[in-house]
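Protein modeling request. Please complete all fields; requests missing the sequence field cannot be processed.
Requester role: graduate student
Desired output: 3D structure, token encoding
Chains: 1
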Amino acid sequence: MSLVAPRKTYLWVWLLWLCLFFGTWLWLVFGQNRWEMVKEHWPIALAMALGSYAAGSTPMGGGTIGFPILVLLFDQPAQLGRDFSFAVQSIGMTSASIFILARRQPLAWAMLKGAMLGSIIGTPLGIFFIAPYIPALWIKLLFAVVWGSFGLLHLRRIGEIASHEGMTDFDERWDFRVGFTVGLLSGALVASVTGVGIDMVLYTVLVLLCRADLKIAIPTSVLIMSFTSLVGIGTKTAFTGVQPGVFENWLAAAPVVALGAPLGAFMVDLIGRKPTLYFVAILCVGQLVWALHEERAALGSVGMVIALAAVGLFLLGFERLRAYGAVLVAERRARLARSEEK
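Delivered output (342 residues):
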């Protein structure tokens, strides 16, 4: 029998959040006579059942599913996919984050705090000064390339990534600075353009650079995407406005993701993260192939070569980050060994 006392949890906080959310949603739908609108957009709600599960159980936000569904399957503008990603994750990822915090799951707090500070600066800057100048085709391509290369990384390194235990303890100030850099750059260059991605970047740094356990890296990535989504949708609502159709799709999908994302965070502890990551990695690679096929005429042969070269560059960057992480871990262990000898 274990003598370690279980962590005290506060699931009542999450249940209170659900009551507040569903009370508001019911008022918006039935109090404002919008039920027909919800029924009209049921396909996105169905798609986000899978998207929200992936959001809670993997380092990829619900927009990872919502974006290609809206843009590639439903042939909607890429800008709508981006804004919808911010909007739907502001509910789904927030619900999963409250669930994670209520269960008191371990998090990489120093790096998360730095990433939050970087995101609150970088995401609005990207929304104002970068995203408006990126053509729709390149938004699709950026999404496809980043997530495709991420999927290929996991198909190649999943055994190693899933084997990490704990997290290499460097220095909290170092972790904070790294997190800030990740939040600033990925908020400005990726999340502001596609509506997702900062979670994947922070997760990649945690598992490749810090050799973090998936039980730490994935919940941490969920929290940073929740925070960035709130910053993104708040900024767009207050200053730039959102694309037409975002509210209607959000209203249909919101009740699904409010439950689906926390369910993913819970179920992955029962079935394991490795099978889920394999599944999502295949989806990421599949959407890359789909996007390149659908846009082959617009891209032309030169564009296709550029896209494939970009995938190769991302994979090379991942491998360099992994190698640098191995050096840092070895240096850390050597320092610890020397201090123990003294």
